[in-house]
Amino acid sequence: KRRDKSTHVDANEVAKTRAHASGMINLFAAKAKQEKEAAERQANGGSTSRQSSGEVRVAKDISELALPRTMAIAFPNGRDDLLNFTITIRPDEGYYRGGTFNFSFTVPPLYPHEPPKVRCAHKVYHPNIDLEGNVCLNILREDWNPVLSISSVIFGLLLLFTDPNPDDPLNKEAAEDLARTPRNFEINVRRSMAGGYVGSHSYSPVTR
Predict the structure, then answer these.
(1) Which long-range contacts (CB under 8 A, 24 or more apart) does 57-64 make?
(2) Catalytic entry in 136, 150, 157, 206
(3) Can 120 be counted among the known catalytic residues?
(4) Mean pLDDT of the residues in the chain
(5) Would you say the pTM of this structure is higher than 0.85?
(6) Which domains, from first to last, does the chain contain?
(7) Engineering a disulfide at 161: which of 9, 39, 70, 91 sits with its beta carbon 3.0 to 4.6 angstroms away?
(8) pLDDT > 50? residue 22
């Protein structure tokens, strides 16, 4: 006998709904806190010594970072601005070994309820990074949750260089190249990293 889909209640769906509702409540609370902090800043002439909840969490994340020798962090605006920083990745294996790639991180005040915004500073021939520097990483989109951290994102970026994914592309040309002719993909990656052309697109050198 066919079950009536309109009356069937899936326990997993109920759990998901409850989790979603809880997440929304936390998000509303975070937004209310942010608005309160903004009002305090305005009352104090635009400044306050209190850190936002996002800044507190970012400071914790950064203090706990344990980066390998192939990665580095820098603060272009100084250590007083923890919401804007740069991550440098120098892969020592895979298609992109020997390259130096910089990513800008902009952390929203509602972090960790919202993910950081990440862009690659270089034009890269990569299935998961488009020519404007946008990054296709699931934890920066639908799979983000407040349990994740800056470290999670950084090591997710490293994984893109050691194991690029042609099945979730932003650059479809590069993805098809990798899926169909891995050797040709490798040649194009090396050419782009050296500052050459791939198709009609020119690239700046990123090799050490």
Answers:
(1) 57/111, 57/112, 58/82, 58/83, 58/107, 58/111, 58/150, 61/149, 61/150, 61/151, 62/150, 64/149, 64/151
(2) 136
(3) no
(4) 84
(5) no
(6) 53-202 (3.10.110.10)
(7) 91
(8) no
